[in-house]
Design a protein that fits this description.
Layout lengths: L1 H15 L6 E12 L3 E4 L5 E4 L2 E11 L4 E7 L2 E8 L4 E8 L2 E7 L7 E17 L7 E4 L2 E13 L4 E11 L1 E9 L2 E8 L3 E11 L1
Antiparallel strand pairs: 1-4, 1-15, 2-14, 3-6, 4-5, 5-8, 6-7, 7-9, 8-9, 9-11, 10-13, 11-12, 12-15, 13-14
Length: 205
């Protein structure tokens, strides 16, 4: 799926080569990933709690024209998970969530440049780990989700700009927890994180 996202971004950029005024941005942000989680768990019932994570993020943006752009972001982060209300430690998992969005910029050339957009996310879950002797294994299915985005740029000079970006990702995954030999609990988990980022972008024009 990540290959499909990259191909889509490349096709968009290739189609835009003939568009007058097209240009690139590359940027970096510090992001906070704040899950808005809920779960439907078989056998044991209850819910899950997923902790917040803070990591650096890379973003690459192509502007078709001053108003429309396509952006691909990439980062990886680690979350710890526990069962509620028991507090049972369900270990940790790493996420790789490349997200491709198309945005509309309302005020190109202004001192304050807001934008909104939407797109797709595909989250890979990997390196699941638990040290809890009561949990034998935890497995997360990689999943496709949708994303909404809003933010703004504040130009500093002809190339650099300050950026604030907020995304809401609607993400659901199936989780399988082996709590004892032959005793398996399955969970339908909505993670639905807010991704809040602050950083800088450099424009090639």
């Amino acid at each position: 799926m990540i290959r499909n996202l990259l191909i889509a971004a490349a096709l968009c950029a290739g189609a835009a080569q003939a568009a007058e005024g097209g240009y690139w941005q590359i940027g970096g942000r510090i992001i906070g990933v704040i899950p808005d989680e809920s779960a439907d768990i078989t056998v044991v019932g209850g819910d899950v709690k997923v902790d917040n994570s803070y990591m650096p993020e890379l973003d690459i943006t192509y502007y078709f024209d001053p108003h429309w752009s396509v952006e691909l972001i990439a980062s990886t982060m680690k979350h710890s998970v526990e069962h509620t209300p028991t507090g049972l430690d369900l270990g940790s998992v790493w996420l790789l969530p490349p997200t491709l969005t198309v945005s509309y910029h309302f005020a190109p050339g202004a001192k304050f440049q807001p934008y909104v957009g939407a797109g797709l996310n595909y989250t890979f879950f990997y390196n699941e780990h638990t040290s809890n002797s009561d949990v034998f294994d935890v497995d997360y299915d990689s999943a496709l989700g949708f994303a909404l985005v809003a933010g703004f740029d504040v130009p500093v000079d002809d190339h650099w700009s300050f950026n604030v970006d907020v995304k809401k990702i609607f993400l659901n995954t199936d989780v399988t927890v082996t709590v004892a030999p032959g005793v398996i609990a399955e969970a339908d988990v909505d993670i639905d994180p807010w991704v809040i980022g602050v950083g800088a972008r450099y424009t090639f024009n």
